[in-house]
Each structure stands twice: as C-alpha cells, then as structure tokens.
Amino acid sequence: MAVVRPTPADPTPGVLAPARESGDQRSIPPELGAESIAVLNGPTFMYSEPSGDVPAGSIGGLVHLDTRLLSGWVLTVNGQRLLVLRSEILQHYSAQFALASPELPGLPANGLGFRRLRYIGDGFHERVELVSYQPEPVRIELRLAAAADFADLFEVKSGVRDRSAQITRRHTPDQLCFTYAAEGFSAETRVCSSRPADRVEGDELVWELELHQREEWFVDLDVPLPPGLGVVESVRGDIADVIHGWVPDPFRHWMAERARLHSDSQALERTMLRTGQDIAALRLELEVKGQRIMLPGAGLPWFLSVFGRDTLLTAYHTLVAGPSLARGALLALARLQGDCCDDFTDEEPGKILHEVRSGELTRTGLKPYGPYYGTADATQLWLILLSEYWRWTRDDDLVRSLRDNAMAALHWMDHYGDRDGDGYVEYATRSPEGLGNQCWRDSPNGVVFHDGRIPVLPIATSDIQGYGYDAKLRLAELADGPLDDPALARRLRADAARLYDRFNRDFWIEERGGFYAVGLDGDKNRIDSKTSNMGHLLWSGIVPPERADRVVRQLMAEDSFSGWGIRTLSREDALFDSLGYHHGTVWPHDNSLAVLGLTRYGYRAEANRISLALIEVAEQFNYRLPEALSGYPRERLLFAVPYPTACSPQAWASATPLALARAMLNLNPVDGRLVLDPDVPPEIGRIAVDRLRAFGQSWDLEAVGRKGYVRLSAD
C-alpha cells in the first residue's frame, strides 16, 4: 500500500477532520453588498446591509467575542423594507443610515423619512427615527424582526449548526430575550426597547403608529453586552449625543496623544490620519492571566482577536507612532507563550501563539484556538519586536522582565522549531484541526513549486529563516545590553553567521536569473517558485550585498511588480492568478517589509516606487489600504482592484503607511539617538512629524528630498 505523505493541503492524511481554517476564508459578507456597513468596538462588531438590516440567514449580524448574538435585524414598514438614501460610518463604532419608505398602498414613495443611528460602546445601541411628510394623517405598522442563532464565528464563515432546540425565548412588549445553553457554554441576547411594542409576534416587535404631518417618532433599541471584557474605553451616552460627538470620546483622546505626520502630499497626510484611526479602532483591551493589556487586533470582521504574526508586525510598524501597542503585544503574547507539548493545539514550550478565540467551538474543545499555536514565525517575530521596542524606548526593565520568555523562545527555535537538527525552522501540524502552512502564506496551496506541485511536509520557508537570523542578531544585541550576558551574545552571533552561510547555500537558485527558493520541502528540495518572500529576506538582512541587485531586479520585474506593488507569486509560475490569495495578489503588509528591506540595502528609488504606488491605492479607497489587491497589471486596468474578500480595516495593511513613511525618512533609533537619512520623492514633498515618542521623550522631525533634521521637543 502506498504511503500518503502529509502536505499543506492534507497535513494529517488518514485522519478524518472537518474542513480546516485557512487564510482564503477571510471573507467579507458578499451577500451584504459592496457597500455593507460595519461598526466595531474591541471584540464586538455589527455587519449589515446599507439599510442597516441583517437578513436572517445572511453572514452578517452582531458578534461579540466570536459569538453571534444577533443573526437577524430587519426593519419594515407595512411589511416592506426601507429604501436607502445614504449610509455612512461616522466613527469606527458609529454609523448613520438615511432611509425612506417605499411606495405602499395609500402612501407614495419617500412619504416617510427614516434615520437609524447606531453605535457600539458598552452595548449595541440603535435609535430608529421617523417623520411623516404627508398632509393627511397616516397609519403604519413598524416592525422589527430579530433573530439570534448564537453561531460560533467559525460557523458564520462556513455553515451554521441549528441550535434552535437549545434556544429559549422570553419576550415581552419591551424586551426580546433569547437564551442559549448547551453543555459547557451559554449565551444570552436581550433586545430592550424604550417604547413597548403594541404586540409581539414571534421574534418581532410591532408598533402601530398614526403620524400627522411632520410628526416625529423614535424608539431606542439596546442589546447589553457582558461588562468590560475587550471593550476599549467605551463611549457612553445618548445615541444622538454620541453620533454628533457631544459626549467625551476616549478614542479622540487616544488619537490626540499619538505622533502626527504633516506633508505637502494630501494623499499621504490623509492616509496617515486614516491609519491612526483604523489602528485605534482595532485596539483590544483584554485580561490576560490577570492583567489588562492593550494590543492591536488583526482585522474586521473575522480577526478581532489576539494573533501572533499579524499583531506582532502591526505593533512593529506602529512603534514610530508610539510604544504602547508594541508593549501590550509583547506582554500579552509572553503571558500566553507555550509551556507544554499539546498535539491538538500545536503548542510547544517557548512557542508564541498563532490565534486566540472565545466562541463555543473553542470553549467546548471542538476547535484548538484557546489558544492555537500553529505558526512557525511568530516566535521569531516576538523576539524582533522585543528588540525593536527596546531600540525605540531603551526600556531595560521590560526587557529584563521578559528574559525568561526570550530564552524560551530561543530554545523553541533551536529545538522544537528545528525538527531534524539541520539548522532550519520547519513546520508541520500534529493536529487534525491544524494549519497545513504555518508561515504568512497560510492557505493550503500558499507554498508551491514552479510547476504547481504542492510540497510535502515539513517545510522550511525562506522568510522564517530570515526572521530567525534577524532575531538571533537582535537578541545578541540585547544580551550585550540590558540582559548583560556577553557569552550568550557571542553564541548567538556565531549561530546567526552559520545560518547565514547555510541559508545562502541551500536556498539560492541560480537558474531563471538567480533568486531565493520560497522554501525547502520535507525532502530538502528547493521549492522553486518566485515569490514576494524575497522582500522579507531583504528586511531581515540575510541577503549578501553581492546578491541584492539580482533579488531587487526579480522583485521589480514586470512578472512580479504589478504597478501597484509586488505580487505574491510571479506570473512565470504555473499557478499564477491575479485573484489567487497567495498566487498573484498584492499585499500591502508584504510590500511594506520589502520597502523596508530595499531601504536597508540602499535601493531607495525602488522603495519609493512601491511606496508611491501604495499611497495611490489608499487614495482610491478612501485613504485606507485593503488587506490585499488583485494582481492585475496597472497599465491594463488603470485603477487598483481589491481582493474580493479582503478584510477592512485590516491591521497590518492599516499599519503599512507607517512603514512607507519610515522608509522615505530612513528613520531609525540607533544607540539612543534618532538617525534620519531621508530620500523623500518629489511627489511627496515635505514630511514633518510632531510628538514622535522615543527614549521616553518627544521629538519633532522634518525632511524634504534628501535633507532633514530631528530636534528634541518640549514634553
């Protein structure tokens, strides 16, 4: 009988398992339309159609801590849905919907005006307002239909289990109450109405109204949430006051304390403002083993939770705006660091997690996300962030307090991560629910050969080795500094030197112009597709200077560079697809690392070319970079096309402009000093930054072209 070997597409052959989660399932609700409206606060979000409705059976709804509390939320007048005039998100936590009545018997279209005001703070709040424009009194039936299926967020993306037999209803004219209880899990949804309904029909509140000309009527609807957990500095107040900004807003206070960029380029300035708003919106304040910690979540809608890779790279980029999110990410992930071997969760001692979830499937042990550790790069990225945080803050005390975590991470890299002792970190899952690919290209076919074959596991990808090289050199710097361990520093630099030599021997492919393989498969074959991972290698510094020019030419060649950014896979490769998740799309965060790498090696023109293209992309999407772009050539379509199901906002895409600006300035903390070596393109003109925090002080800087200055400002 032939032996079936594990691959990322089938990582545990012979083990019956449900469909695994993969990166390409990160979808925005297509049936809610391109203009869908999402409001969020911490781990809570409400996704709806532009009317504010969530049709039962759709993928939208109110989700809190990975449990859908409302799966239906539909407003009708005389049995008909409302017409959409315009709807807009006001702040990340609030939205407004301008609506009108459709044509009805005895009532012309637009005869009634409606406004829905919505925000998420300490709960979900909505006000429905209506006014009659008819000269004669009108009688109408206003109906709110609610539904609560208590689906786990994982099910919302695939298929929802019917829980109706375990859901009880206790409805009154001023409250709809849904309660779900199953073994090991329970949840409740209460819809509270400020005006008692005239009747309750099933799960619907019904008001019978008679309105005279210009008479106004409103009702407030509230869904309380469990207190506190995950909600960042909740805004509270009357709905109208919140919508109009008439109550104190902690969000604005947090924004006011961040560094602020000014530029001659309106596109850059507005993109950076939007970046700050989106990063603030994605903050999570969670209790981790007894300590409340603030850190960036990964993205809306599916990833409002603690992640490894996504959170760490986002935090790395945000250090130029302030250290608080990076500090929170370091502390939270350290407290959740692996301390045992667990096949179901892929946990190993010293390993940094991949993802944390709180829904029913995780709490009852059906999913391994409490936390799940299936990532082979987060541990190295945690060490890189620790180093970068120290470089920006000189916070010796925090580094010393995390010494044991850093040593555990190093031990994981050298022992558990290196499965066969060849000096490379490889990955393969042991869990029937585990991820097949555990690098950033985490879809089942995210790592493939040039001819399209899927490699066998375990796989050592190139980016992971680059991160490991950088992590060891950075940890050596900390060993020479706050950790005061010169012997460790010498050992780490020797390890890094050996990895550098070994990597450049084993991963380099001389054919097709010379490039780095995306990885080595389980038989140590070079996985010979051309990918954007080479940009990560420049960022890590593992590329010899004499090879940098060929790597840069590969990244900027027409088959790889779309005109909007570097594609994940070259058009020369068999599986290239402009809409392929990791097979030809353009990812802003992926490009941000390439831009920093190009700057590191002195390729400033190429770095600026990518940066300017991405700023143009942001300008096309209301100054927000989507998670990923389709890889269509710029000269063909003339405008950027988002990946159809990209998250928005998505943390590492939102943080990308910070990296682009940093690269233009070539801004780095070096030995307690800020070093500036600008190459600001003429299209950008002047860049100035106020209140930049470094080394516990406030700094201002300005640059035009290749000239710049930094000065210490008064705190």
Account of the protein in words:
One of its GO terms (biological process) is carbohydrate metabolic process. The chain folds into 2 domains: 214 residues, Glycoside hydrolase, family 65, N-terminal domain (Beta-galactosidase, Chain A, domain 5); 353 residues, Glycosyltransferase (Alpha/alpha barrel), CATH 1.50.10.10. It has an 8-stranded antiparallel β-sheet with strand order 7-8-9-10-17-14-13-12. It has a 5-stranded antiparallel β-sheet with strand order 6-5-11-16-15, with no helix packed on it. It is an alpha+beta fold. It is 29% helix and 23% strand. A hairpin with a 2-residue loop joins strand 5 and strand 6. About 1% of the residues have low confidence.
Content-based structural category? alpha+beta
* CA-CA gap between termini: 73 Å
Give the CATH architecture of the largest domain.
Alpha/alpha barrel
Beta strand count: 30
Can you tell me the residue ranges where pLDDT is under 50 for at least 5 consecutive residues? Answer: 22-30
Strand order of the largest sheet: 7-8-9-10-17-14-13-12
